[in-house]
Amino acid sequence: MRSRFSAYALGKVDYLISTRPEAKRGEEDREELARYCKSVSCVGLKIVRKEAGGKTDDTGIVTFHASLQANGRRSLHIETSSFARENGRWVYVDGAVKE
Asked: Cα separation of 19 and 7, whole Å?
């Protein structure tokens, strides 16, 4: 989770795509991701809860709060994300955003 947050902050679109499941990578819109990364400043990340995701697990869940700033306004993005181990690497499967 932290590495993906950093990738958003630094505009590392290739990394964001590579940390999605192989079957989903072709669905990612590289230009849209790049625009989003440029439009927002990633101010801070707080991991609120973690379930599984250890060395012997194949799945994990992370709930986090991301402080973001866009157009001079700060917002709090709250999400519970699912991760899975694929070919020995963790990939972001999906997330549920709290509105």
From this structure: 10
Are 61 and 82 in contact by the 8 Å Cβ rule? The answer is yes
What CATH topology corresponds to 2-98? Nuclear Transport Factor 2; Chain: A, (3.10.450)
Write down the pTM of the prediction.
0.93
The domains of the chain are located at: 2-98
pLDDT in tens, 7-21: 999 999 999 999 999
35 CB-near residues (< 8 Å, 6+ apart):
none
Tokens representing 26?
């072709």
Burial category of 48 from C-beta neighbours within 10 Å (exposed 0-12, middle 13-18, buried 19 and up): exposed
The residues pairing with 63 across neighbouring beta strands, listed in sequence order, are 49, 80
